[in-house]
Amino acid sequence: MRNRIHNRWIIAFAGVILQIALGAVYAWSVFRTPLVKGFGWTISEVTLTFTIAIFTLGVASFVGGLWMRAKGPRIVGITAGVCYGLGVFLASLSNHGLWVLYLTYGVLGGSGLGLGYIVPIATLVKWFPDRRGFITGIAVAGFGAGALVTAPIATRLILRVGVLETLAILGVAYFILVVGSSMFMINPPENYLPAGWAPDIATQRGVYHFTLSEALHRWQWYALWALLFLNVSAGIAIISQAAPMAQEITGVSAAAAAGMVGIISIANGSGRFLWAWLSDFAGRRWVFLAMFLLQAVLFFIMPAVSSFALFTLLAFLVLLCYGGGFGTMPAFCADYFGSREVGPIYGLMLTAWGFGSVLGPLLIAYMRESTGHYNEALRIIAIIMLASSVIPFFVHPPTETRESRLAPPQRRPMRP
Description:
Layout: H1 2-5, H2 8-22, H3 29-39, H4 43-71, H5 73-90, H6 98-127, H7 132-161, H8 163-182, H9 212-216, H10 219-250, H11 254-282, H12 284-301, H13 308-337, H14 342-349, H15 351-371, H16 375-388, H17 391-394, H18 402-405
């Protein structure tokens, strides 16, 4: 029993499967055109469904983190599967009105996304204190890769059975995958350490475990929130406009631009692992510094590009950084505040994802409409990325004394 339940690699595999199912939300663009043509809705009306889902995800992640602290990850994951699967399934009734799509896929499905997203992250960071960046990168890479798996399947289903029927089929599939994977989600034993590994005695970082209240009284929590928010805003701006932007800037066909979207989605998934893995060696804040500086250069160059291949490469690198923020931040959060309550602490931090998913697309869409081109929007984002690179220089672990950080987790440190 112990070997079966406490095999952390089986739990990690289940976490990846869970994230792949949830990450299917990134394939939403596959449904956009069929819904627009089938029901006469506008592109912006259909796209709002995705925005609602991602914003709800950010809020629900915090709720899921709090619930995990009280009841453990399994029940939260199962509930996530029910909400997500049922939300997508009921979206097949959207022929009754656009509001049905918003409430089912957007609110109910988005709630399932948020509850489920935090489960493998908060669970695996406890099972892998020796490889925090690596394991959180692997887990969230599954979320980034969800669109790669789902998009071709959904496309074929839409052509064969129709868009609403496809939503019904996928809702059942998501329910099975998320609920099934969640059955393996369990916290490690108290004070668990992997065999043959001990924390770095020189730093003992993460031995002191902050509560949510304590973390929110440290400016470092807000600095990490800002890092995630700024990184999300830049990357999701590209995600929201990738195809039309490529057509306008490079003059390629709609089919070629759609193919580019598939290519850059690979970066979204792989960046979550690559940057997180690198952060185990180079340090979390230096990884964020590198990502911000790289994006500042990329966004500055984009308006001057006329080659489709070069534009695709630049967009690929931006999405590599976008995914890198999600891969690195859970480990960053656990480094600074400990892993015991990483669920609610990082869950609340994921509201940065929701707000970034609103700011980025709205900013680039507004600038495109007001100026008639993307140039000004891309330059503004480049300036924002350059300014953002200041934060990693100043952020450092919370200023607890060494004695309080070494205190047993069940005892609160004495205050002078």
